[in-house]
Amino acid sequence: MGDDGAAEPGGPVMAREEVDRALARFGAEHEAVETSLYALQDHAGRRLLEGAELTGTTKERWARTEEAVSLLWTYFDAFTAALDSARELRGRSRWPAPEDLAELTERLRGPAVAVPAADGSGSGSVERITLAELVARMNGWYAQALDTVAAADSVWSALPARIDMLSAELQRIRSLAHSVGVRPGEHPAGDDLERTTAELTALRAEVVADPLAFWVSAGGSSAPGGGRPDTVRYDRAARALEDVRREIDAVLQVRQDAEQRLMRLRDVLSRADRTLAEARTARGEVLAKIAAVEVPAVSGPPTALYEQLATAAEHRRHARWHRLSPLLESLEERADEELERARASLTAVTAPLAVRAELRGRLDAYRARVARRGMADDPLLAERYDAARRLLWSAPCDLRAAEQAVLRYREAALEALVPPGGPADGGPAGGEPARGDGELR
């Protein structure tokens, strides 16, 4: 609706040209008001509001808006009558008499329009206002009515359609969920799906009945309908549904590669079982061949994991994919841990045998070094070599005594290879033989 553009009351009598300009301005205002009122009458949002069973904020605001629209039409009729009367008076003469100009001035500037009081009392009282005041009131009521209608129409145009699309997606996901056994009470995603379904149903009903409760006005905006639909609850439901969809996709992926994952689990557990069996055998060997050492105990086969593996296979046979998915993830982690534990157990059990093998290797390396120097038959060296060899190749082997025997042989070999007074065979000074194969270390 337009600006009033008329002079304020209380001024001097208007000249003929001023009267004509005021009539033209009010005529333009009248046309703008009429066009706006009919546009409001035909607005889709207004028709929806009239036919809807409203609640809450929208019901209250629409009741006030209907009163404003009713007053708008009443004031418009008064505006039409006043303008027609002024035009009729002006049209009596091309050169109006002074008394006619005074009358026109009063009608165009003064409180000459009788309208129902707009104080909301409903008492039926009448007040007299100027045409400019009448236009200003109509502009205010029109803005109020259009703001209500446009805001409701914006919410109805945006949210229900989006909720319906999300509900259609929810039905598709629900069908997939049921196909893989994801149901309420049996899987968290099934419960989430039920909650999201209930939320979307409630949200749509609330949006339809109270659209203005889902409208966020634009701060500082004076334009009718300035703002946006509040999509917080819709967005939250959409995120929840996306989480469910990802969970269903994960379960579908489990269905696709379940057999391969079960085969890998069987292989990992089998390797862990074989490694533990090897560790138990090795432990018996160590206890028989090595004396005076503590050998850690070896646990039995991973029976509990085998039982869970059988449960997983049962889930797969009966298409209980929603139960299989978390069980497989847990089993894969625990099976890898079991294999690492078995390997660590084997390493710990066979450590004494590894120590014995290292000592045997060191003893033979020292003797080979001595033999290359032609000193293998030295009585002291032969005696100490035989003593170390007996300890290392006897059962049970005393590792501590054997290690000391090997060290004593090494010391004797060093003394023989580097006699007092200088390096042997032109080797470097410092009491150490030249480094090379069979170096004594």
Protein model, in words:
It contains 12 helices and 6 strands. With 441 residues, it is mostly helical. The N and C termini lie far apart (106 Å). The protein has 4 domains: 16-149, Helicase, Ruva Protein, domain 3 (Orthogonal Bundle); 154-254, no CATH class; 257-349, no CATH class; 353-426. Helix content is 70%, strand content 4%. It has helices spanning 16-42, 44-51, 56-90, 98-109, 131-179, 188-209, 232-289, 303-317, 321-349, 351-372, 379-392, 399-417; strands at 113-116, 126-129, 215-217, 227-229, 290-291, 397-398. The strands form 3 sheets. The protein has a two-stranded antiparallel ribbon with strand order 1-2.
Q: Outline of this structure?
A:
The protein has 441 residues and is mainly alpha-helical.
How are the secondary structure elements laid out?
Layout: H1 16-42, H2 44-51, H3 56-90, H4 98-109, E1 113-116, E2 126-129, H5 131-179, H6 188-209, E3 215-217, E4 227-229, H7 232-289, E5 290-291, H8 303-317, H9 321-349, H10 351-372, H11 379-392, E6 397-398, H12 399-417
Helix pairs in contact: 1-3, 1-4, 1-5, 2-5, 3-4, 3-5, 5-6, 5-7, 6-7, 7-8, 7-9, 8-9, 10-11, 10-12, 11-12
